[in-house]
Design a protein that fits this description.
Number of helices: 14
Number of strands: 7
Radius of gyration: 28 Å
Largest sheet: 5 strands, mixed
Strand content: 5-15%
Oligomer: single chain
Helix content: 25-40%
Order of helices and strands: HHHEEEHEEEEHHHHHHHHHH
Distance between the termini: 67 Å
Length: 360
């Protein structure tokens, strides 16, 4: 059977549309034209469609250069791999299509994968105006290799070196949702301006107080939101916060990692299970305590990265420099800088393996 049988209707129609001048106008396909009818048109020698150049490269292997511009950090990197040619449907001479999912899968298997915790979107330069970006996927980094894409294929331009440029961006998150702690993936860029009023300022309550009218008792959700805002302001004022924030999407050298972990754990130690009244200063909030989720939200950390920071500090407190069971090999690894940084997760894995093999 001809390879057309594997193509979708829109792909068959794209082949016909590309060479529409070969077909009488009354036979031009429309929304009601079926797949069998499109195949009959393409295979009819009377019309002379040149199908071979469009489909015979399917499954061919082609070296593809990916130029990745990660605008979150920002940074630039290159990945090269042998891509599978999907087809040349709707392409100009010399162009070919590759599945977007194939590109993402190979990228994440490479030595320069996309890293980070917060959701991202990836796109390619718009073919008509390279200043703009045509995004084809939105996903968490963890699920990027298996994420659904739209469109499903990317066009590789005609060139001596087949290449694609990928642009990586943050997905903006609502500041209001961030403050109310309903987002499991907090924003990594808080651009909320500083108010001239205190965080707990409420115009209506202020007006009631002025005229001696009692304010209604604050609801549970109001108390939690206010405490969360206080924690958010407190963490930003702590020493080391700027270094901590700048580390979010960076692949760090080992010597810089302990300080990042310890910043998060120190904040947890100071405020976890603390009574709201000690933070907000209002007696009617007494009895409510700071949760670990509130700590994570204030730090803008996902659950996994927060848990890894806790584990990293625990292991360093046992085997690191100055610890009761200080291990020379651990101290050496923590102080090692490499030509290519391995990042927090690699160091944590080393520490966990060390503990497994050297139980004290």
């Amino acid at each position: 059977m001809h390879s057309f049988s594997r193509l979708k209707r829109q792909e068959l129609k794209a082949i016909v549309d590309q060479q529409r001048e070969r077909l009488p106008e009354k036979l031009w396909p429309n929304s009601k034209t079926t797949i069998p009818a499109l195949i009959d048109i393409l295979l009819n020698p009377a019309y002379g469609f040149t199908t071979d150049t469009l489909v015979t490269r399917s499954n061919e292997r082609q070296t593809l250069y990916l130029y990745i511009a990660d605008n979150r950090i920002p940074s630039k990197s290159t990945v090269v791999f042998e891509a599978t040619v999907a087809d040349q449907i709707g392409c100009a001479p010399g162009e070919w299509r590759v599945k977007a999912s194939h590109v993402l899968e190979e990228l994440q298997k490479s030595s320069s994968p996309i890293r980070g915790q917060a959701p991202i979107k990836i796109g390619v330069p718009d073919p008509f105006n390279s200043d703009f970006t045509a995004f084809f996927v939105e996903s968490s980094v963890r699920k990027l290799a298996t994420a659904c894409t739209n469109p499903t294929h990317l066009v590789v331009g005609a060139s001596d070196r087949s290449s694609l440029t990928l642009r990586v961006e943050h997905i903006p998150r609502s500041a209001a949702v961030h403050k109310l702690m309903y987002d499991e993936f907090p924003s990594d860029t808080d651009t909320t301006s500083v108010s001239q009023f205190p965080p707990d300022f409420r115009p209506l309550d202020a007006a009631r107080e002025r005229y001696g009218i009692p304010s209604p008792k604050r609801s549970r959700s109001d108390s939690y939101a206010t405490a969360a805002q206080y924690l958010n302001n407190i963490v930003k004022s702590r020493p080391g916060y700027k270094t901590f924030v700048n580390s979010r999407h960076a692949v760090l050298q080992n010597p810089k990692i302990p300080a990042v972990w310890k910043f998060a754990v120190s904040f947890r130690n100071d405020f976890y299970e603390k009574d709201f009244s000690q933070i907000i200063g209002e007696s009617n909030t007494s009895g409510k305590r700071v949760t670990k989720k509130m700590i994570r939200i204030a730090l803008a950390m996902g659950e996994t990265s927060f848990r890894e920071a806790e584990e990293g500090v625990r292991l360093l407190d046992v085997y690191g420099s100055g610890a009761e069971h200080e291990a020379a090999e651990v101290v050496k690894e923590v102080n090692t800088e490499r030509d290519v940084a391995l990042g927090k997760r690699a160091l944590l894995r080393f520490l966990q393996e060390w503990e497994t093999n050297h139980t004290v």
